[in-house]
């Protein structure tokens, strides 16, 4: 699902709600609009603040209009380097490099997802080895050393004698006049 947010600052509060939860980001500026280029670092920061470090690309659109360009090639490349994102030159009008952008992001996202899944199962494996055995029997095992039951940690749970002795019936203090 793609969300095309409005670039204008007056829509900031609204657009935030659109990219919250995003899994990838395309930062686009126009070859013929220097302001859109200058706004890129702020946009990157806004996205990072809202959703963290997600797969992101920088795209210079409208390269069919290179003759009217107001951004030098080196400037755009330097910005991509500074922001640590891949840089594409594209033309939506000429259908140049459009699918490449989305293919790269989809690959990056899947890689991240696989890595995350692997890390999660690793955490699950480690923590499952550390789950304590809750022994509620309070009987023959209760004095056993923790390392002797099931080879792991044993936490003995005993009923609180004081409380159970006192108010055996929840209605003991109630009476009907
Ligand atoms: N020559 C050329 N024109 C393009 C290209 N991509 C978009 N345009 C034109 O640029 C204008 C702006 O396109 P939009 O898609 O509205 O740009 P936007 O950045 O989403 O603008 P907002 O919706 O105001 O944020 C339109 O007239 C498009 O037809 C391109 O690659 N080359």
Automatic annotation (TrEMBL):
Its main location: membrane. It comes from Lonchura striata. It is a lipid-anchor. One of its GO terms (cellular component) is membrane. This is small monomeric GTPase. Pfam families: Ras (PF00071). The keyword RNA-binding does not apply. Its EC number is 3.6.5.2. GO terms for molecular function: G protein activity; GTP binding. The gene is RAB23. Keywords: GTP-binding, Lipoprotein, Nucleotide-binding, Prenylation. Signal peptide: none annotated. It is found in: Membrane.
